[in-house]
Design goal:
DNA repair, four-stranded mixed beta sheet, alpha/beta, nucleotide-binding, Ribosomal Protein S5, domain 2, zinc-finger, Rossmann fold
């Protein structure tokens, strides 16, 4: 009898995350990206022979590090995030939603660097040169050493780099450039990988700082292959609410500095400006105390920010009361209301609840739990909290108030802004050095905090 041998099915692999499958599918089953599953051709294992050494290895003590020193951009908030400024040869990826202000910020940075007698090349693939010039005139970003080109071909863009030899290259954006050497449309996985590799190679060989603008997907992640984030030296995320003027720049990855710094910017019609003290944007100004409001101090990276949580309760006859939140995690607020009902015997099942922050700021830190609880309790009892009071601490489902990092730093920031009282979680290390004239009340449970403030 003849035996039939069944041919092995070809394997397919996702170009972004590496997920493999026996048959082709249009959408990756791991990262849910469309059009990234390609046939994986088997590659035989090869060995690379040793080549002649052109530059011998040096002892680490003999390496000259002066060329890798930071150079300030002139934008203090951006320098804070980058760790001190721009490093020659570094490649920075700045990602953010459309219309958030990435081009405005980078155009301002380009003009400030160009005014330091350094040539800057701005490559735009999304707008015409005339449109970029109009924005530059509006935000006062005109400089003699700032060169502009509207180009979508990678080869021509690299030709401009060879001709000008700039110290700073800005590409807006990496998804608009395409190379004729590889197949695929601009913005595809293959094109983005080729464009990024070519620009990174040019930056490293010429000692040229390069800033790449990247798009984001619907879920907020950076578009393109994950390899792009691994290749670059710095990855910055540009966040902000469209209805707010506040913009935040966070360093997700940084080979030259910390990743827990946050830069705050104010986006106006005249351009974008750094905010060294943005806490005033997140606190309402009322003449008389109002029930349902509580001030808290949150840490954005290593920077303490004072913000306000507001709550409004309205009795309803609906069987299912409404729960609306803005600037806070809705599931976290729902847990805080459940803690009040179960641990503090506060009836909230007949009230519609509206909990929000002031100024459009998003508070995702668990340290804002205690302020949320106190704001809801203040709205329920219709008793305003003291005007000069702040509160912070993580609340557990058992009603306990857990310690949070940076208690002393938060108290120092509150005292600087004129607050005189604080309710904080009890910590084995204590509240640290308390400023003179500042009163700190340590609590262990939610009930203890409520009994301190309400009758």
């Amino acid at each position: 009898m003849s035996t039939k041998t069944r041919s092995k099915s070809p394997a397919y692999r996702c170009a972004e995350c590496g997920w493999s499958t026996a048959k082709w599918v249009g959408r990756c089953g791991e990262c849910q990206a469309w059009g990234t599953v390609e046939e994986a051709t088997p590659v035989a294992a090869r060995t690379t022979a040793a080549a002649a050494v052109s530059r011998p290895a040096k002892r680490i003590a003999d390496v000259d590090a002066t060329n890798a020193a930071f150079r300030a951009t002139g934008v203090g908030e951006l320098d804070r995030v980058l760790g001190g400024g721009l490093v020659p040869g570094a490649v920075i990826l700045l990602a953010g939603e459309p219309g958030i202000g990435k081009s405005t910020l980078l155009l301002d940075v380009a003009a400030r660097v160009a005014r330091q007698d350094r040539d800057v090349l701005y490559v735009t693939g999304e707008e015409s040169a005339a449109q970029v010039k109009l924005r530059a005139e509006r935000i006062s970003a005109m400089a003699d050493n700032l060169y502009l080109t509207a180009e979508t071909d990678l080869g021509i863009a690299l030709g401009h780099v060879e001709q000008l030899q700039p110290s700073l290259l800005i590409v807006d954006s990496v998804q608009t450039l395409s190379s004729s050497a590889v197949e695929g449309a601009a913005g595809g996985v293959t094109q983005v990988r080729e464009v990024a590799a070519s620009l990174i190679n040019a930056a490293k060989t010429k000692g040229m700082t390069t800033i790449l603008v990247g798009h984001v997907t619907k879920d907020g992640s950076i578009a393109g292959p994950r390899l792009l984030e691994h290749l670059v030296d710095v990855v910055c995320q540009f966040d902000g609410d469209r209805h707010s003027r506040l913009r935040l720049v966070r360093a997700v990855k940084n080979r030259y500095g910390p990743t827990d710094e946050v830069g705050c910017f104010d986006l106006t019609e005249a351009g974008i400006e750094g905010l060294t003290d943005p806490s005033g944007l997140f606190v309402s100004r009322t003449k008389d105390p109002v029930s349902g409001t509580c001030i808290t101090v949150t840490l954005e990276g290593r920077r303490p920010l004072v913000a306000e949580v507001q709550a409004l309760l309205a009795e309803t006859s609906n069987a299912q009361p409404r729960r609306a939140t803005s600037g806070l995690d809705s599931s976290r607020v729902a847990m805080m209301m459940a803690v009040l009902q179960r641990r503090a015997s506060m009836s909230l099942h007949k009230d519609d609840s509206y909990v929000a922050t002031v100024g459009g700021v998003r508070l995702g830190e668990p340290a804002t739990d205690l302020a949320t609880v106190l704001a809801i309790a203040s709205a329920k009892t219709n008793q305003p909290l003291p005007a000069q009071l702040i509160a912070f601490g993580e609340v557990g489902l058992a009603g306990e108030v857990r310690p949070v990092p940076g208690i002393g730093r938060r108290i120092q920031e509150a005292e600087r802004l004129g607050f005189t009282h604080a309710i904080v979680p009890a910590s084995p290390d204590g509240a640290g050095q308390v400023p003179a004239g500042f009163t700190v009340k340590e609590v262990h449970t939610v009930s203890e905090a409520l009994s301190t403030l309400f009758r």
